[in-house]
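#struct-queue
[09:14] JT: dropping the first one here, sequence first, then the structure tokens:
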Amino acid sequence: MKLIVNADDFGYSEGVNHGIMEAFYHGVVTSATLMVNMPGAGHAFALKQANPSLGVGIHLVLTCGKPLCEDVSSLMNEEGYFQKGKNFLDEAEPEEIRKELTAQFTRFVEQGGLPTHIDSHHHVHAHEKVSPIVIEIAKKYSLPIRMTRPNSEELKKAAILTTDFLAHTFYGEMATRDHLIELLETISEFETAELMCHPGYVDEAVITGSSYNVQRLQELEILKDPSLKQELAKRKIELTHYGSIKG
């Protein structure tokens, strides 16, 4: 079977970027998704260009940092940042969502070419107001989308390429080597799967801006464990990225 190990939050900060690249160079990470609106985005695009074998998709953002567009008031708080949480999307203007996501996708293409696939921060791409817009973009450019429980049937109906399974529980207290091995057992039953992870080094931007900070270091150390590749080989799991499973 084929497994994509995707590091979210590429572009969040240079510390996160360096951690992701460390997990790519010396661990099992094969893919990353880039946040074009965050301070480390330019650094991430440079790393992408220098490392073409890393699959890089777009991590669409509606809940972190500032929007690229200035006139999307239903998405913003009084300070000009995205509103926190996902509940605000229930009342957000669909055209403002479309405008911001289109701007983010365009920024990615301008700086890095087409992404390998599409996912999102806090899985907002599965929200009922967001999903149709993301599917429209994916169809236009023949791109895969990360599956989640809320959107798996919708992706099937739209004939959007995705994996057979998403392992999303390697996170927080569950980000342990033992749990990762448990996930490999589950993953081996499918033809294709994605393991979502969040490795990174802790810099000032992470400490001050993200509640998920030192945990990124813990993930990084596990993902670099040399014995993981033996565990993959034992289960005949081949590491890849979304660019190699396109139809």
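[09:21] JT: and here's the second one, same format:
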Amino acid sequence: MRMIVLLLFLFLIFPHISHASVMELYDEQNDSWLIDLKPYIFEMDEALLNWNDIEDLTKYMQKQVYQKPENAYIAKNGEIVKEKPGLALDVNQFHTLINEFYYSGADNRRLHVPKQKIPARVNEELLKEIKEKELNRFTTRFRKGNIERTRNIELAADAINNTVIFPGEHFSFNEVVGERTRERGYLPAPVIVKGEFSEDIGGGICQVSSTLFNAVDLQGIEITERYAHSREVPYVPKGRDATVSWWGPDFAFRNKFNQPVLIQARTIGGEMTVAIYTSNDATLFQAKKP
């Protein structure tokens, strides 16, 4: 009885295998993890593998192996930087290898973890094609001597730069730029709150969203969400602004072309410019006849 109680106690304390303890071997030369299968064998029946634990191991390995793909992008000098594929665990092959390796009776029960490439969403060829035709561009100006506001504008412009919106796809400024925090480099600068000037982290990014709005406000782009400031702003004509804030107003639109649309955003000196591009073959979606 005491033995049963002790086993239950140990099971509660150590319900899962420590994957880190069985994955200490990494083959740097072949860029491969090595897995020891011994901890995944049922102690009461060595002819069986414990697939519940192996499923846990699989989830752990997915996190270890995963590398996010990097899209191709256009550098500041105008050259296209080639995409880089990502990596993911080949789950089916991983499980197949475990079965084959274990049931083959091999004494050495260590195996290389199989990987598969994840293609980048935007590759070099696509960028070359959708950079052919400029649809529109818009420029606004700011005082570069205001270091905090300039910094915020630069960060937000960099965030939307090289964004590709595929046909029918929806763009959200807040989703693309992300939360404006000190940790991400944003600084306190003047903002408009309920018609009054105040200071908050990320002040100035509304100039980026407003510049973007004026650049994409054209045939083929459907504006789905836009809000005006509670008072006029000096960097765009009256009624041509688009205010944004985290947990608040967003600026959003949808691509109605049959080809992807590319956003290029630049800050040079005291100017911020957004240019919109697509392919020479781009046309508007045709409504289906009833």
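[09:30] RK: nice, looked through the second one.
[09:31] RK: The chain has two domains: 2-118, 126-278.
[09:31] JT: good to know. Confidence is low (pLDDT under 50) at residues 1-17, 20-24, 194-199.
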